[in-house]
Specification:
Length: 469
């Protein structure tokens, strides 16, 4: 099967593929890591750079390897030998295991193309993932006295439309049972985080740290936000209103039967749509990996961007591209938390949050937020412009182009005559500069020739205005 081998060699090492020149004890660690992640294949007789050196073992050595795997890992691998003119390659494949696999008392997992021993604080997460249970379903020793009845009653008021059978006069224990937050006489972790009087007493990293920054080293304000998840969301949105700029727009549209005065509408326009920020914060609160006891949800507000990140990458098998697909599946890490927020009306439809964020930013003429899942966390970055100060330094623009780009960021578009006036350039020079930025993918040209031609930042929709700070 040389075709399959060539495909592996071309793909290179990754989460589900590893090369080794020869069999060694470290190969068992790799197979254990494959089993604890999503399965994978080990190629013995291949160098790290994908060159076939060949495996020259005999049948006795092959049986010894299979016995090592069976005895050390309790796995039944698929073992094959692929031969061609380059030599023989031993191929050992294992599937993802239903329960965590240990090697001499240690547990391993794949992270990219590396095999890592799991630290003690993440072992619990692995067992929970393998058992099919989620963090928020894990039972606690807390009593019902640690639940705040006022928080439960507030939820019931919010959930009136989606949970009409729940009454505000219903006992707290009964409500928690219906939400699967109280079972077998024990509160689940989700109950404490959603409705606890002092959730951080038991879940000490379940807080938000939020700050206003001028630069990475100049911090204007720094807040530690605690309480239950609904309280955390309320406080975060309150600080957004303090940290962000807002401008007033008054639109007048006279429709039949209405006077001009009645048609005047006042609208507050924030740097970013507050509903989009709220969606991102909700995602961070309910989808974060709470089993990570070393991290917390973080929010940084700068003059020209907002960063929101939480511990925990996307669920296995999901990518950022999957999130941007319309529609896409919803795989909540903490389904009990997600369900309660849905009943409360803070989640419109499961799996629709990212789409709503993108649509709200587009409607305000803002660039699409950037999403990243890596290094053990998930990040969302909102920007007021496609080009903030730092990225400008790497675009190799001349002084005229930088000045013009700043103008476009402020005004939303520029024409050739405005470029000439702004920079003092001649018409041919202005044309060359503008066309160079179009070729570089910075600007988009609208119109072909003549007075109707103008240039906008690439990625903004037609009819969108530039954001003014």
């Amino acid at each position: 099967m040389p075709g399959e081998l060539d495909a592996w060699l071309q793909a290179g090492e990754g989460e589900q593929l590893e090369f080794k020149l020869q069999w060694a004890d470290s190969a068992l660690e790799t197979l254990a890591a494959f089993a604890n992640t999503r399965g994978g294949t080990l190629l013995v007789g291949v160098s790290d750079n994908g060159q076939v050196s060949g495996w020259n073992g005999n049948d006795k050595e092959l049986r010894a390897i299979v016995d090592q795997i069976a005895d050390g890992l309790r796995l039944e691998p698929l073992v094959r030998i692929i031969s061609d003119e380059r030599g023989r390659v031993l191929c050992i494949s294992v599937a993802g295991a239903g329960l965590p696999i240990a090697l001499r008392g240690r547990y391993f997992q794949r992270l990219g193309n590396t095999t890592r021993q799991l630290p003690s604080e993440t072992l619990g997460r692995l067992f929970i993932e393998k058992s099919g249970a989620s963090w928020d379903k894990h039972p606690t020793t807390a009593s019902l006295d640690e639940i705040d009845p006022a928080a439960v009653h507030r939820f019931l008021r919010l959930a009136h439309d989606r949970l009409p059978e729940a009454s505000e006069t219903e006992p707290v224990e009964s409500v928690l049972r219906k939400l699967d937050l109280f079972a077998d006489g024990q509160l689940r972790r989700g109950a404490l985080l959603l409705f606890g009087r002092r959730p951080q007493s038991d879940l000490h990293m379940a807080y938000v740290r939020m700050g206003r920054f001028k630069t990475d080293t100049i911090i204007v304000d720094d807040k530690f936000i605690e309480g239950n998840l609904f309280q955390q969301l309320d406080q975060v949105m309150q600080y957004f209103r303090q940290y962000l700029q807002v401008r007033l727009e008054v639109n007048s549209r006279v429709s039949e039967g209405k006077s001009m005065l009645e048609a005047i509408q006042r609208q507050d326009i924030w740097d970013y749509p507050l509903d989009a920020l709220r969606e991102a914060v909700i995602n961070a609160l309910i989808h974060r990996d709470y089993f990570d006891s070393t991290g917390h949800t973080s929010i940084r507000v700068y003059d020209d961007c907002v960063y929101i990140w939480n511990p925990g990458e996307l669920q296995p098998g999901m990518t950022v591209d999957d999130l941007l697909r319309r529609p896409h599946d919803s795989r909540p890490r903490n389904p009990l938390l997600a369900r309660v927020f849905y009943y409360a009306g803070w989640i419109e439809h499961w799996g629709s949050g990212i789409t709503r964020i993108l649509d709200l930013c587009q409607a305000q003429g803002l660039p699409a937020p950037q999403f990243r899942s890596a290094s053990g966390r998930f990040e969302v970055t909102f920007s007021r412009s496609l080009y903030t100060v730092a990225p400008l330094k790497g675009l190799n623009l001349n002084e005229r182009q930088e000045k013009a780009l700043a103008y476009v960021r402020e005004q939303g578009q520029i024409i050739n005559k405005e470029y000439q006036f702004l920079t003092g350039a001649s018409k041919p020079t202005a044309t060359r500069d503008l066309e160079a930025m179009v070729a570089a993918g910075i600007l988009e040209k609208h119109g072909r020739t003549g007075k109707g031609t103008y240039y906008r930042l690439k990625g903004l929709t037609n009819g969108s205005k530039g954001s003014r700070g």
